[in-house]
Amino acid sequence: MSREHKISQDGKVVHLDPRGATSPQPTGPVTDGELGTTLCRELLAARSVGQSAQLLVFRISNFELLVDTFGQDFGSTAEAALLAQLRGLLRRREPVQRIQPGEFGIVGRGIRSEPALKAMTDRMIEGGTGHYEIDGVPCRLKLEIGAAACPADSDEPEELLHFARFALRELGDGPDSCRSFSRDDLARRKAMFRMEAEMEKALEERRFVLQYQPQFSVSSGAVTGMEALVRLQRSDGSRIAPNEFIPLAEDNGFIIRLGYWIIGEACQQLARWRRAGLAVPRISLNVSPRQLQDPDLVTVTEAAVADAGLLMSDLEFEITERCMLEESQRVNDTLASLRHAGVRLAIDDFGTGYSSFAYLAWQPLDMVKLDRSFLARVGTDHRTDAVVQGMVAMAQELGLGLVAEGVENEQQAEFLRRIGCDVAQGFALAHPQDPEAITQLLIAAACA
Ligand code: C2E
Ligand code: MG
Ligand code: MG
């Protein structure tokens, strides 16, 4: 079978012989081996004259899958096709090093700025990504690049290779084709691993704690509910705020187990207050999208509620608009089952992100929590005043409750009274506090 090299510049239809991998020197010379001499030499040469450089490691996305599917020869031809495609695109004839099958390295010397790096990587990605025909197989090759800067990230070639490959790995299955990885990224990654371990340990050692922040009726001042907010207590007693670990717990799925503990603990606390004769109409829990994907969420909640001698209607789940954006059948089913079982549903932080008024017409909804960014501008910007007033009127019209979040001063509280807002929550009324402090607050409220 004859394998001619045919490269059409426009459509990138390429027929190449695997031997083409080394014969037509597409960019600079191509050498084989890990970091090898070529990249090292280039990096050290740049370093010796104080020149900035970028180590770019590029690869054919899904290369292993392509080779597993179509065979080794296909892989070699694809590599050659890609390199041929890149020919002429690079500013100089930078030498390319083949690091491993499907993966190459190149040093961009003299690249100092972000725009210069972007110009080079965009050129490579646009040139390399596209439709090819390899050994008669039409396919789409996608070029991906990981970058590390010398000397900004490191001046050690081995470490730069490590960073650039880390960047490639971070691209994962995402839509991006290029990213950098720096020393700071490495520090963040290490902190993430430590936090993952710390969360596991904290759950075992019962070092997660719940604080509670009351919500008050604007008209009567009575406590209408209590939002449970989780904190991680370090061994030394200091506490880590949820924003520092919840996103990670959502990413790695830990939130499901943590959520079970939170639901159980909050139910027990509500039962303790009720046994002490203190009036807490309900407890609100923050629930992430990941938890709503959990098929066991409803039964676990039912068990926790039954165990504490409560009703499902004693609970309110605060979900964010992200949950509704998921549009997954399972999320919808879970929300419908929760609602059917009696749990009240609230939209948290309404007005941030991809706010859509359509969500307000969503049947199972009971409550809207207006994001605190609105209250922060109230009284200083008449348009925001009008938006908040409109929101309150709309919620009333829709038969929804409305909680204004982030009430930080008397002026904001007065504004809420004036426009007839339902419920308020914020530092000016009560900070999130440990259950014992909340007990005192409830006793004082009962005696008033
Ligand atoms: P969120 O649900 O919107 O909770 C309200 C946050 O605003 C809390 O921060 C609270 O301390 C803070 N806050 C309350 N009043 C005021 C105020 O007047 N001014 C200002 N500036 N802030 C106020 P926190 O406790 O740090 O929680 C942050 C976020 O972490 C929560 O936002 C929620 O999204 C998440 N989170 C907290 N606990 C849990 C949990 O148990 N599960 C899940 N999935 N997420 C949680
Ligand atoms: Mg909340
Ligand atoms: Mg909120």
Structure description:
By secondary structure, the chain is of the alpha/beta class. It has 16 helices and 19 strands. The radius of gyration is 29 Å and the shape is elongated. It has two domains: 3-181, Alpha-Beta Plaits (2-Layer Sandwich); 191-447, Alpha-Beta Barrel (TIM Barrel), CATH 3.20.20.450. Strand 12 and strand 13 form a beta hairpin. The strands form four sheets. An eight-stranded mixed beta barrel has the order 11-12-14-15-16-17-18-19, surrounded by five helices. A six-stranded mixed β-sheet has the order 3-5-6-4-9-10. Strands 1-2 form a two-stranded antiparallel sheet. Helices cover 44% and strands 22% of the residues. The structure holds ligand C2E and magnesium ion (2 copies). One magnesium ion binds at residues 227, 286, 318, 348.
CATH C-level label of the largest domain: Alpha Beta
Percent of sequence in beta strands: 15-25%
- Please give the alpha-carbon distance between the first and last residues: 95 Å
* Ions, cofactors and other bound molecules: ligand C2E, magnesium ion
Please tag this protein with its features.
448 residues; alpha/beta; Alpha-Beta Plaits; TIM Barrel; eight-stranded mixed barrel; six-stranded mixed sheet; 16 helices; 19 strands; elongated; disordered N terminus; binds ligand C2E; binds magnesium ion
Strands, helices and their partners?
Layout: E1 6-7, E2 14-15, E3 30-32, H1 36-48, E4 53-60, H2 63-70, H3 72-86, E5 96-100, E6 103-109, H4 114-128, E7 130-134, E8 137-141, E9 143-150, H5 157-171, E10 178-180, H6 183-204, E11 208-217, E12 223-233, E13 239-240, H7 246-252, H8 254-275, E14 283-286, H9 289-292, H10 297-307, E15 315-319, H11 321-326, H12 329-341, E16 344-350, E17 367-370, H13 372-377, H14 382-398, E18 401-405, H15 410-419, E19 423-425, H16 435-447
Parallel strand pairs: 3-5, 9-10, 12-14, 14-15, 15-16, 16-17, 17-18, 18-19
Antiparallel strand pairs: 1-2, 4-6, 4-9, 5-6, 7-8, 11-12, 11-19, 12-13
This protein binds ligand C2E and magnesium ion (MG) (2 copies).
One magnesium ion binds next to β16.
